[in-house]
Design goal:
Shape: globular
Largest sheet: 6 strands, mixed
Oligomer: single chain
Radius of gyration: 19 Å
Helix content: 25-40%
Structural class: alpha/beta
Order of helices and strands: EEEHEEEHHHHHEHEHEEHH
Number of helices: 10
Number of strands: 10
Strand order of the largest sheet: 6-7-8-3-9-10
Length: about 260
């Protein structure tokens, strides 16, 4: 009888120091945790607690000062290739069409060029299907300047997923959007996970967003960042906006808000 599946992400005693001329700053210290394959986890906490640093560690953009980061059974020693990333600012290239921006990871990542060359029509079809899924059918030939902020973020998510990564890293991806659009994006994110499951790591300051989107929420303390609390979210999935504003979610948000307040003290 086989045991439980191996976590996609494992952090073991991870510490990260940033070194500058002014000295050494410890961003996170002694982080040990794992993320199950196919799950979505959210990091929350006060500013400066190392949330974004943890994303950089998992992606391989920075290397741990101490401890190990493992993704899919392999120790992370440099930038990962089969990973999608989305940020608060979608940073679409203004001289490329929406379709051209979505196709970009297939063109610039060496590991994906052969797949694109072998069957460009298939990948263009996938890009168009992703755009249709997020409500951007008909926008393929538009320039980014012709899109609203919410539409640009939708295109950014498509770009992050076009090469079918198993891991999606999101750093405050919806923070710049108005409340109505942000809540629409929560539904969209869940729809994308159902269409093609992936493992997600979300950094957010929005506690309700964390509860709606994540299977578990990690509350970090600060100076340096450490795991203070981990909350499993037992709400049914996929979650509706009503679930996010229900009694169970509101109670969990109140608990986490108090934990973050104490973490800042």
């Amino acid at each position: 009888m086989s045991g439980p599946p191996r976590p996609l992400i494992e952090l073991d005693g991870v510490t990260l120091d940033y070194v500058a001329r002014g000295g050494r700053t410890r961003a996170v210290e002694g982080i040990t945790m794992s993320v199950p394959r196919g799950a979505c986890i959210a990091f929350v906490g006060p500013s400066g607690c190392g949330k974004s640093s943890l994303l950089r560690l998992v992606s391989g953009l920075v290397r741990a000062t101490a401890g190990t980061v493992t993704v899919d059974g392999r120790r992370v020693t440099g930038p990962l290739t089969n990973v999608g990333m989305a940020f608060q600012n979608p940073v679409l290239l203004p001289w490329r069409t929406v379709l051209g921006n979505v196709m970009l990871p297939l063109e610039i990542l060496k590991e994906n060029r052969a797949r694109l060359a072998a069957d460009r029509a298939r990948w263009e079809g996938r890009a168009r299907e992703l755009l249709r899924t997020v409500g951007l059918a008909g926008a393929e030939d538009k320039q980014p300047r012709e899109l609203s902020g919410g539409m640009r973020q939708r295109a950014s998510l498509c770009r992050a997923l076009i090469h079918e990564p198993e891991l999606l890293l999101l750093d405050e991806p919806f923070a710049a959007l108005d409340a109505f659009t942000r809540e629409e994006m929560w539904d969209l994110f869940q729809a994308l996970r159902r269409a093609r499951p992936f493992t997600g790591v979300l950094v957010t300051h929005d506690l309700r967003e964390a509860v709606v989107l994540a299977d578990s929420v990690v509350v970090l303390s600060t100076n340096p960042g450490r795991v203070a609390h981990v909350h499993a979210v037992s709400l049914p999935s996929p979650r509706t906006l009503a679930d996010g504003y229900g009694a169970e979610a509101t109670g969990l948000i109140a608990v986490m808000r108090e934990q973050i307040r104490k973490a800042q003290a």
